[in-house]
Design brief:
The chain has helices spanning 6-30, 33-89, 94-175, 180-192, 215-223, and strands at residues 198-202, 205-206, 211-212, 230-231, 238-241. It is mainly alpha-helical and 252 residues long. Residues 205-239 form the C4-type zinc ribbon domain.
């Protein structure tokens, strides 16, 4: 059976308490409310992104369609203007004048039809631009909210990290001077058992696994020398005997 000064064993509970606090802070760091909120925001932003891409694509397509419609109207208008100027110049034959008049009439009909198409495209473009404006505003709002929550997350992490750093300094002092073999055993057990390597023996209960020990195990522990490093037969943790202990100094 390993041995270590009784006082070192009792001080090991202080080390365990600090290590437990670090574990709690690590859990807190992974479960900040801001992280849950960011996950929700990312999902909403991802859902909105599809609508944003679709809306932008549709607006771009309609703008190209409007440009073409405007160009078609302009071409017909220019042709009609040229014909009208030729007709008004008086330098054309009667036959050509009739042909130009007919063509001007046809161009007017064509221009009216193209202007209807142009108007329809303009109306559809206006509607889609309005939709795009609303989608972009919603996206900007979500992005701003995400930035705000990210700042909250970073502040929370910074606060926790500062506490961890402070505890690291306290732990270094707590470990300083402790029996080397005891600390090594503690670290080994702690790694194997999820962070708790030492616990107080509270009455007949191991506060590491929270189980009552059988009478035979208790008898063996109580008969052991004060410097003997005893371990719980149920969970394997180092059991620290503290006179008059009523509550656990470390939890599993």
């Amino acid at each position: 059976m390993a041995t270590a000064p009784p006082e070192d064993q009792r001080r090991l509970l202080d080390v365990q308490a600090l290590d437990t606090r670090v574990q709690q802070l690590a859990h807190q760091r992974k479960n900040l409310p801001a992280l849950t909120r960011l996950t929700e925001l990312d999902a909403r932003i991802a859902d909105l992104r599809a609508s944003l891409v679709e809306s932008r694509t549709r607006v771009a397509d309609l703008r190209r369609e409007l440009t073409k419609a405007e160009s078609d109207v302009e071409q017909v208008r220019n042709r009609a203007d040229r014909d009208q100027k030729r007709l008004e110049s008086g330098g054309v034959s009667a036959k050509d004048a009739v042909a130009l008049t007919d063509e001007i009439g046809s161009l007017a009909t064509r221009q009216a039809a193209l202007e209807e198409i142009e108007l329809d495209v303009m109306e559809r473009l206006e509607a889609h631009e309005d939709t795009l404006t609303k989608v972009e505003a919603a996206n900007d709002e979500l992005a701003a909210e995400k930035a705000k929550v990210e700042a909250e997350r970073d502040a929370g992490w910074a606060e926790i990290d500062a506490q961890v750093q402070e505890i690291a300094g306290e732990r270094a002092k707590a470990v300083d001077g402790l029996d080397t073999a005891l600390v090594k055993l503690y670290e080994k057990i702690r790694a194997q058992l999820g962070g708790t390597g030492a616990a107080v023996l509270n009455g007949n209960r191991c506060e590491g696994c929270r189980m009552d020990l059988p009478p035979a195990d208790l008898a063996t522990i109580r008969s052991a020398a004060p410097d003997a490093v005893v371990r719980c037969e149920e969970c394997g943790r180092i059991l620290v005997r503290v006179a008059g202990a009523k509550t656990g100094a470390a939890a599993g």
